Amino acid sequence: MPVFSTKFGLSSLQPHQIWRCKLRVLDLRNTGQDFWNMWSGDMDHVPSSSLMAPVAEDMSRTKHPLTPLVIYIELCLKTKTSIKFLTYLLRWVEQRKASMHLCCKKIKIISRSRENIKKILSMVKLNCVQEVELSLTQKVSTLAKFASLLGKMRNVQRLLLSQIHGSVTEEQDHQALLQFTSQILRLQYLRDLRMAGPSFLEGRLNQILRCLKTSLYNISITNCLLTESDLTHLSQCWNICQLKGLNLNGVTLTNFRAELLQVLLEKVAGTLEELDLNLCGIMDFHLMAILPVLSSCSQLRVLSLCGNLISMTVLESLLRHTDGLSALSLELYPAPRESYSSLGILHQERLAQLKAELWEILTDLGCPRKIWVSPSPCPHCGEDMCYHLSPNA
Ligand SMILES: [Zn+2]
Ligand SMILES: [Zn+2]
């Protein structure tokens, strides 16, 4: 089957060229940032982490019509120009639908214009979509407008919600959220749920969890407020039994009972590969409570605890508890609490000394192991999380 991947703009590809070379598949995905920017307006098309591997292709569920030409594309509905261009492309395909199938497995919706989005999506086979990102920079009520569209994307495996601002205060917001979550019920292949900064979620996580019909392999809830009962619901829901990735970056757990985190991790210990608890306000007593369960996470590859205030003693204990985890290959820890003065100022020399002590413990433990220790905020760039400091060798 002739496959054609293009590095140049689609405008330079004439229909008669397609026919003349007897093209069967035209793949316009993963063509690199420059190409993508050129015609979709997406500036944030970045490569993904390990758990961001492309969603599994399952042709049995997303059968294509028996058309001579399949065009694979990723849609990013953002700027007016990109929407204008896509409208042109989709119309062009629409006129030739008997002989070609436009297959879109990944859609990112950033545009505020609901009309434009509806127009574009009405020309896309929503059955083909496997990954959808809604980044609406708008209020919760906006979610309702996309509810029915989401429900039609039956084969979605990864759902990302970002920049949905505002809390659910009015009845109209409440209804909108209900309308949206009720469509999650239809997503019978959903495996990966990511919510970045969902300010509407506080006290309502269960409303979403209740709608999950599948066992998730990744859940990411970041930079928002959760209640203790949210975390309890998460630890009790059956959908996380096979979880590989858990990310609670930027969710404050400081005032939560330490057992909550422990119970949550016990639930996923057998399968967990990546744990991100950066900037969670985790204290010594939280970490002490989860050390035993951490040591039983035999599949754990990535452990990230930066931006939390942890003492040297507990960090030492952490290194010993995780020593037997053979899969662990990336460890990111905060600078020990003792590296800071009572006013919170970082003492570089003190930090260097404490790091040397940590390396010594690792040497004593025998196995060669690399860890990263970074202060927060970073003295070089001021960021809470960064990779300015090199790991020990
Ligand atoms: Zn398709
Ligand atoms: Zn930095």
TrEMBL record:
Gene3D superfamilies: Ribonuclease Inhibitor
Record GO cellular component, one term: cytoplasm
Keywords of this entry: Leucine-rich repeat, Repeat
Protein's name according to its UniProt entry: Uncharacterized protein
Species annotation: Ovis ammon polii
Phylogenetic classification of the source organism: Eukaryota, Metazoa, Chordata, Craniata, Vertebrata
